[in-house]
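FORM 12-B: Structure-to-Sequence Request
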């Protein structure tokens, strides 16, 4: 709508309409195909010859839609703009009353047919705003998007939560021991107990939970971010035992070796500093530094 000479390229991904999540209407199509047809329909209503192409990218969402040419002469631009306004307001009105019209389009059809199917007359005052207001009530997101994945939380706050949760897990289980061949009692490394996220949250202060609630994922995201200390599986929190860690098969061996070599001993070992039994691995095997003298 910015100008008659405008062209566009779009790579549809998340299923959203103009004012919220896109509602499915055709069970015979996949959700992805149906959404592609909807985006193509928008291009047709806006008077474009919509072309489809498949990108060579490593993604399952790689079908793009391109509008390079118009289906109408420049003299009809004002008329088409009114049709666009009518189409947008129609979808908005139906979305509000939850009775959105469910009309399927083939993007190979002409835009005139698409516009006729939309066919809902607008009051005069809404039509008059076509050139000045594209979408009443629309609020764009901020230019600078706030980071809310717990990564921007103060380091001392995160460290305090990590220490509290770790102590909670360690104190939930009594120290384990076993006898060696000589009958001597020998304590094993204490991995603590596993607790559900709900149980962990119940032991944290209201101020801490309130602060975490404003972050995406909250407590679970913070614990997963601290991969060195915790393992979160099926909603339960465990203290990570690095003796049981196996290398991921997703990364190629040479890449894994290079990455591990670059990161080796660049951070202090949390277990060496805070765990009552120290680290479960000897210094030469632990990827983290056992003391500042080992830091690279």
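FORM 12-B RESPONSE
SEQUENCE OUT:
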């Amino acid at each position: 709508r910015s100008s008659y000479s405008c062209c566009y390229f779009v790579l549809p991904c998340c299923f959203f309409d103009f004012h919220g999540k896109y509602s499915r209407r055709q069970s015979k199509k996949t959700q992805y195909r149906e959404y592609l047809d909807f985006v193509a329909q928008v291009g047709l209503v806006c008077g474009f010859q919509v072309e489809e192409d498949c990108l060579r990218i490593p993604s399952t969402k790689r079908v793009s839609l391109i509008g390079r040419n118009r289906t109408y002469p420049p003299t009809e631009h004002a008329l088409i703009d009114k049709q666009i306004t009518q189409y947008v307001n129609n979808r908005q009105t139906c979305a509000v009353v939850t009775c959105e019209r469910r009309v399927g389009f083939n993007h190979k059809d002409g835009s005139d047919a698409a516009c006729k199917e939309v066919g809902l007359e607008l009051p005069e005052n809404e039509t008059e705003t076509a050139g000045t207001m594209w979408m009443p009530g629309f609020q764009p997101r901020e230019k600078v998007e706030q980071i809310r994945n717990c990564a921007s939380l103060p380091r001392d706050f995160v460290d305090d939560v990590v220490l509290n949760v770790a102590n909670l897990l360690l104190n939930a289980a009594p120290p384990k021991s076993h006898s060696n061949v000589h009958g001597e009692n020998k304590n094993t490394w204490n991995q603590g107990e596993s607790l559900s996220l709900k149980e962990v949250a119940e032991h944290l202060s209201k101020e801490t939970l309130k602060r975490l609630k404003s972050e995406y994922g909250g407590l679970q995201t913070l614990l997963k971010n601290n991969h060195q200390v915790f393992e979160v599986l099926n909603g339960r929190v465990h203290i990570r035992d690095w003796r049981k860690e196996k290398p991921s098969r997703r990364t190629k061996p040479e890449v894994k070796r290079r990455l591990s070599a670059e990161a080796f001993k660049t951070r202090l070992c949390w277990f060496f500093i805070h765990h009552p039994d120290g680290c479960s691995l000897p210094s030469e095997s632990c990827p983290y530094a056992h003391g500042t003298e080992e830091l690279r």
